[in-house]
Amino acid sequence: MSERRLNEQVRIVGSGLLGASIGLGLRDHGVDVIVADVSPSAQQLAIDYGAGRAPAEGDNPGLIVVAVPPDVTARVVAAELAAYPNALVTDVASVKLGPLEQLRAMGADLSRYLGTHPMAGRERGGPIAARADLFLGRPWVLAGHDDITYKRAAAIEDMILDLGAVPIELTAETHDEAVALVSHAPQVVASLMAARLVDGPDAALGLTGQGLRDVTRIAASDPGLWVQILGANASPVAEVLRGLRDDLDAVITALDEPDAGGSRRTIAEAIAVGNTGVARIPGKHGQDRRFAQLVVMVDDRPGQLAKLLTEVGEVGVNLEDLRLEHSPGAQIGLAELAVLPEVEHKLVSELEARGWRIAAVSA
């Protein structure tokens, strides 16, 4: 157990994925964690998984984490502030400006409240999907406001650091605009693209490759939760989607008349600007850099992927990223390895010498 920073009893209200994961992570550091939920069965399930203990008489939490759906976040935060007048309260909702404004309108004690948002999650929800390491290396936004000092909110940052996350300071408004671009609008795009597959012919779906899986990976998310998230952050998300709609209209017009003057340029520029945008996505250790990609064919039997990764290590090459895809109708997997461009030739040569089949290489 590593040395912990947080020295408070922690009460977590809400036992879903985030609440239970926070509980698991803090328990690993020896923190006394209380789990509360309006659903007794959900609360007991989180406790059974080790996220904390049931509330008891005499509890005196110094830090309260509200991990409930966005549409009830402000109400629950206000209730916790009133019930525990000496506690610092935070929430982990994916929108920040709305709850802050609602709490201000309620007259809540904002000198003890600081909203946060961990940029982490999974396609599955609930305590059964919780992980103590869910937040490792992930950004965790602290949405500062003028009614609280960061010194007063130090316990929140201690918790974030104990969970292995990276604290990022933003205003509530800036946070909501940012997540509209990098999280909320992408959810809508992924879901709409996945919806095109409902009536897609089986023959087409049989050709599915990694590109489609990448685009639609998050489309399996909970509709009820996303109705709340998108409703709470409607204006910034709509602004992003309007820009996307304009770009789509331009490409559609070009595709309707591909031989018209300027059509091919419109299409080319749309793809090229996408190249520029994707290059800005931070990669490993937050670096904005591109890696060489090679696709290795891996027999679909036990131990083969582990053997490949072991031999990459023996060659002395560090993997920057890894994705695995199965080839439809074949007993083979395709392992896409991302490495630094300067070691790509060495790795290809060494793997081929060891009998591995290289399906593709791209820089």
Automatic annotation (TrEMBL):
Keyword Flavoprotein: no
EC number: 1.3.1.12
Listed GO biological process terms: tyrosine biosynthetic process
Segments forming domain Prephenate/arogenate dehydrogenase: 8-285
Keywords carried by this UniProt record: Amino-acid biosynthesis, Aromatic amino acid biosynthesis, NAD, Oxidoreductase, Tyrosine biosynthesis
Similarity field: Belongs to the prephenate/arogenate dehydrogenase family.
Protein name per its UniProtKB record: Prephenate dehydrogenase
Organism: Ruicaihuangia caeni
